[in-house]
Write a structure and sequence with these properties.
InterPro entries: TPR-like_helical_dom_sf. The chain has about 200 residues and is mostly helical. The chain has helices at about 1-45, 50-60, 65-80, 90-125, 130-145, 145-160, 165-175, 180-200.
């Protein structure tokens, strides 16, 4: 009986010590994520997505389940400006390595978009930003040289949000690059019609 009382007393004492520590840790995490959010949004508002990358990565370490910040990360990778572009007069090995780094970055962006836009479609099919995320994902696939997939995503984006008329333009350009002239012509016409309708609406 005495042993049980001592054990219970020790357990209660341990819990009394642990609770403030857990509360302090939660408070520190909240402060850190709030500061990171502020910095991330500031960079995105000023079109400096590249600078936001390390802050988003840190934020996702603290809150790995947040879809919105994963999508911001994919967008920042898509708009990234700090990767060196290969020059014609440099060594071939250097050009290959730089191209690989750029391609790898776009592939990573496309993968993050795919995982999270697909999830967003399931949990929030009426999300007002869904069309825009599909549109950005299409560019990531295009730059990863997945042209057919990019076409399908541009089609989905404008279906989701009719204001994204640039999707028709991009589809036409993609079809031209694939040598599919009839399809390209069809989408040039769709783009021109959608632009006229948008102007009339405004």
């Amino acid at each position: 009986m005495a042993k049980t009382i001592i054990f219970t007393f020790r357990l209660i004492s341990l819990l009394i010590l642990l609770v403030p520590n857990l509360q302090a840790e939660t408070s520190r995490k909240k402060e850190a994520t709030t500061a990171l959010k502020k910095q991330i949004f500031a960079y995105h508002r000023s079109d400096e997505e590249t600078k936001s990358i390390p802050y988003i990565e840190r934020y996702l370490e603290l809150s790995p389940a947040e879809i919105y910040f994963k999508l911001l990360y994919a967008k920042a990778l898509l708009y990234r400006t700090d990767l060196e572009v290969p020059k014609n007069d440099e060594a071939i090995e250097s050009r290959i390595n730089k191209n690989k780094a750029i391609q790898s970055n776009y592939t990573k962006s496309a993968k993050i978009f795919q995982e999270n836009v697909t999830h967003l479609q399931k949990i929030r099919p009426r999300d007002s930003n869904l069309g825009r995320w599909l549109y950005l994902w299409a560019f990531a696939e295009w730059f990863s040289d997945n042209k057919e997939k990019a076409i399908k995503l541009f089609q989905k984006s404008v279906k989701q949000d009719y204001r994204l008329t640039e999707s028709y333009y991009n589809i036409a350009a993609l079809y031209e690059s694939l040598g599919q002239w009839r399809d390209a012509e069809l989408y040039w016409r769709k783009y021109e019609k959608a632009e006229r309708e948008k102007e009339e609406e405004d």
